[in-house]
# Entry
Amino acid sequence: MNTFNKYRLPGYFLLGSGLLIVLVWALLASAEDMLNPLANFWRTLRAGEAGSTAVSSEGHNVLIMTSGEIWREFRNVLLIGITPWLMGVVLGAIVIFHLINGGEQLPEPRSGIMLNRYTLAERILHWFTAILFILLAITGLSLLLGRAFLIPLTGHSAFSVYLSIAKVVHNWSGPLFLVGVVVIFVVWLGDNFIHKRDILWFKNVGGMIGSGEHPPAEKVNGGEKAWFWLIAIFGAAVGITGVLLDFPIWDQSRVTMQISLAVHATVGVVFVTASFGHIYMGTAGSEGAFEGMWKGKVDAVWAKRHCYLWYKEKALEDERLEP
# Structure
């Protein structure tokens, strides 16, 4: 009797408890079905169960597309929630960096000797793509964040008019921007292969952080090469997905369109955020850098500091330059 109580009774107790839990669960499930006879029906629909329809278009035989719910949660909750913080933090970091270090000044007075850096055709290509990028950034962010940030400022009527224009501008600028990215890749690929010396540039961000001189660089330094490859990769991603969204004439499925929207919006946000650093370095961040892309020429002092290996090549051709 003692042996029975010691070994078997606890086992029967556990078995009975388990059966009781299963019984209670079954009763509750039955009660839910009795209170809501259509519960199983709606569970089936939300699971994406397909039915029959006379319409042959893709997806019309599914009443509830759960993938659309997932996309909406991703866009309206996660992406819209993160975007202002991401951009704000990066902009804040750039402002703080500039206030602490200031824009990088040339180490000595300008020489007055101007070296040709970019041709007229190259500058037209750059500004063609840059202007389209700015238009796409403004209109794209308006489409993404306008409901939350612009409607309170402009009201629904004005926002509706603006957004209808922004959508047209965005859709037409996208394919042209992709063309610009492809041409940039072809024209400047030869100057943007990564070499071991570029690793030295990244160690102290071209001499802007910590101590040390500017690592010797070619015509294009490590930072400019990084931006080139970012344009190539991110530009292709937003460009291709944008074309898929612009022209839904190739029998794209809804899942394809939803994935394209997710990639397009996410990469676009990161692309715009990364451009803040490029814009800063090309203007207030480095004295003399903007002249290279605006006028096509840079002072010899700037070339010697930022692109020393390229400067040495120019010194062999120009007797005014010190080797």
Summary: The chain has two domains: 2-37, 66-317. Residues 2-37 form one domain. The CA atoms of residues 1 and 252 lie 74 Å apart. The chain is about 70% helix and 0% strand.
